[in-house]
Amino acid sequence: MNLNCSVTLTFNGTCEAAFRHYEQIFETKLQFILTWGKSPMAKDAPPEWADKIMYARLSIGGMSIAGGDTLPGTYEQKSGFHLMISVDNAAEGERLFRALAEQGKVTFPLQETFWAARYGQLTDRFGIPWEINCER
User: Fold this and answer.
1) What ranges do the domains of the chain cover?
2) Predicted TM-score (pTM) of this structure
3) What homologous superfamily does CATH list for 6-69?
4) pLDDT tens, 83-94?
5) Residue 95: left (phi > 0), alpha (psi -120 to 50), or beta?
6) Bridge partners (DSSP) listed for residue 130
7) What is the pLDDT of residues 102-121, one digit of tens each?
8) CATH 3.90.228.20, applies to 83-134
9) What's the rounded Cα separation, in Å, for the pair 124 and 72?
10) 9: pLDDT confidence band, cut at 50, 70 and 90?
11) Which of 2, 11, 20, 58 has the least CB density, counted as fewest CB within 10 Å?
12) How far is CA 126 from CA 12, 16, 69, 104, in A?
């Protein structure tokens, strides 16, 4: 059996900005992007939502992340999870943490712990919760 695991993130109109931000931070490229207005479901979205993202996808390391802007009135705040990024270089972990934390909220400052050279938690400016774990 061949299984692949990925995550889909929902946004309230900020998907493109978030994914462009992640492209820069993680030095990756969007693999696919489709707006509501150019999708077969264009009629289901209000006209002002035409340039919002119905579906986008990028890879961070070996993980595929998909996302999209939910239709107006259907967005739900995220809870109960974090996206964890594990790196083997503390300097890279610090760079990622700073970039993701910019205009966001740090919930556990990046620091040495008993299990990691550096570990921290934050919610980025787009409402996505992250953990950075720098292996010992």
Assistant:
1) 6-69, 83-134
2) 0.92
3) 2,3-Dihydroxybiphenyl 1,2-Dioxygenase, domain 1 (3.10.180.10)
4) 999 999 999 999
5) alpha
6) 83, 122
7) 999 999 999 999 999 999 99
8) no
9) 21
10) very high
11) 2
12) 9, 11, 12, 8
